[in-house]
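Q: I'm writing up a methods section and want to include an example of the input and output format. Could you take the sequence below and give the corresponding predicted structure tokens, formatted cleanly so I can copy it straight into the document?
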Amino acid sequence: MANKKYSNYRKEAKSLKYEVKEPEELLTFLLKVMSNRSRNSVKSILARGQVTIDDHIETKYNYNLRPGQTVTILKNKAAIKENVLIGMSILYEDEDVIVINKEAGLLSIATEKEKKQTALHQLMEYVRREDPENRVFVVHRLDKDTSGVMMFAKSEQVKRKMQDNWKDIVKERTYVALVEGKVVKEKGYISSWLKESKTHLMYSSPTKNDGMHAITHYQVIQANEEFSLLEVQLETGRKNQIRVHMQDLGHPVVGDKKYGSKQRNAIGRLGLHAKVLSFNHPTTDQLLLFKADVPQSFLSKSK
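A: Here is the clean output for your methods example:
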């Protein structure tokens, strides 16, 4: 596995960790542990994405904490003065690409509502600290609530090469999905034609060749009566592919209300994580492989 790291790319963020002892709302909890700060100051720390619960960023004031969870607060001074990357860490960097591990809750790119608190914006600022002319380009995306390995290009040329030859260059894309219910069949695959509704909902068409062909392979890692943890490999990379196919399988992704999830807030996030990305380097052709550990909440729920 490629593990080259630039020691000077960022300073380690100073953070505070607290274990939750009793059920209460997040803002109430934060006001107690940061009693020296004003209510507005605590709210702004939340809004900036500086609070992580277990393995996801949480910005909702009324998020219901459960005993045993760990709340991590990135110190304000650390975040502002040291230009710390919030909600992500760099796994690898060279002249052509940057590979990150993205936390659930961080947008990949800007939306109408959020322009700055995104992986792209933060990386753009990061590379421009070295040279104002530097830029970063999105090669592929992860949904806001999906965590894991994601790659960016440092030039338009590299971006185009990666996107135009995606099927040949990318050798492995493995996800883990925490889904509802016990998946009985140990391994299998789903094949369908995906279409998008007027309300931007993806769905499988019952008609052959009606839409974009999508194939998802899965294998059960561990399961109990309530939840199953699956290793999922994509043969095609369509929008919301895993989420639609898990719904088709009758086992929607945990926390995915958009695609059939019934469980309310089982892990406080979407049960989807990009575990492995392996590709041939666009310039050197060297085979690189990057991993992001499976979130602890996925493992404990499916034991």
